[in-house]
Amino acid sequence: MAPSVQPMPAKRAAPRGKPKDRLSRAEKAEVTRTRLFDAAVAIVGESGYAATSVALITARAEVAQGTFYNYFESRQDLLDQLLPAISDGMHDLVRKRVLAAADDALARERARISAFFEFLEEAPHLFKILSEGPVQAPLGFARHMEKQTASYRRALAYELRRGNLVITSADELEVVAQMLLSSREYLSARFCFVDGRFVRPPAFVVDTYMKMVAGTVFKT
After folding, report:
1. pLDDT: which is higher, 68 or 124
2. CA distance 200 to 202
3. I need a surface site. Which of 21, 109, 156, 169 has the fewest CB within 10 A?
4. 148 and 156 in contact (C-beta within 8 Å)?
5. Contact predicate 32/67, CB 8 Å
6. Which pLDDT does position 21 carry in this prediction?
7. How far apart are CA 41 and CA 23, in angstroms?
8. Within a 10 A sphere around the Cβ of 202, how many other Cβ atoms?
9. Bridge partners of 218?
10. Is the pLDDT of residue 163 over 90?
């Protein structure tokens, strides 16, 4: 008599792993846009605006060239967005450092200029992007200046309300804001480049700046 064939035991289904986190369409779009933006920042910082093409941007970002136009109207549209976005990042860092400073007008001003140099050290491409901006990305440069001026104007207006400034009028405040903002660009150009790379300036730069504004802009 032939032996009975025993049915094979049913295979137990393999345990299912946790579903992988999937990015939403909007999140994927933001990732792609950020990659294009970061690629443009890097290329402009390395080679300047004129050498920054859509082909180079998309190649660096590893994105199809046609995809670029899903996020930006044109090459110029992207270039004009660089400085305002970087300006927002700078403002965030300055605000953070000012809030951590002592409750003193001079301490807050030291925090502002020190944070500016700190940001440049962390984002070395900014200086080239900024220096070529007026010619190569005038709309973006104008928006950047508007943001920076408005931010500094608010900071000085706060000090003026508290009686911490030597100046007394809104007209004077506007002039002083532009003078102090301009000094940052010239100081960074003079003291922040060593062997072709950006570094934070020596301590005496900030110390000398503070000596200049103490008593002439800020009351002591």
Report:
1. 68
2. 7
3. 21
4. no
5. yes
6. 61
7. 25
8. 11
9. 165, 214
10. yes
How many whole angstroms separate alpha carbon 220 and alpha carbon 67? 56
Q: Taking a C-beta distance cutoff of 8 angstroms, is the pair 91, 145 a contact? A: no
- Reported as half-sphere exposure (CB side, CA atoms, 13 A), residue 189 has a value of 8
Residue 201 has φ and ψ, to the nearest 5°, of -70, 160
pLDDT (tens digit per residue) in 119-139: 988 887 787 888 899 999 999
The token pair at 58 is 């998309």
CA distance 126 to 44: 9
The vertex-127 CA angle with 124 and 132, nearest 5°, equals 140
* The one-letter amino acid at 50: A
Cβ partners under 8 Å of residue 99, min gap 6: none
Per-residue tokens: 107: 């301490």
Q: 88-106 pLDDT, tens per residue?
A: 999 999 999 999 999 999 9
